[in-house]
Amino acid sequence: MTDADPETSNALLSRIRVIEQQPLDARADAYVQLHDALRVRLEGGDALLDD
Question: DSSP character for 22?
Fold first, then answer.
């Protein structure tokens, strides 16, 4: 396992902080979007996003 890039880690934490400040319904949608973005990144960008 390698150490995460500090800039990437900071960007993720910043994005999570913004999400946590939103109302619950908006927060749920934002976490779905974050999940999809992370999944695509982990899969090397090969994944197709479901509509």
Answer: S
Residue 45 CB-density burial (10 A; 0-12 exposed, 13-18 middle, 19+ buried): exposed
Task: Quick: pLDDT tens for 3-50.
Answer: 567 888 899 999 999 999 999 999 999 999 999 999 998 998 655 555
Query: Is residue 1 situated within a structural domain?
Result: no
44 found inside a domain: yes
Task: Copy the structure tokens of residue 8.
Answer: 């990437």
Half-sphere exposure of 19 (CA within 13 A, CB side): 15
Q: Decide if 41 is inside a domain.
A: yes
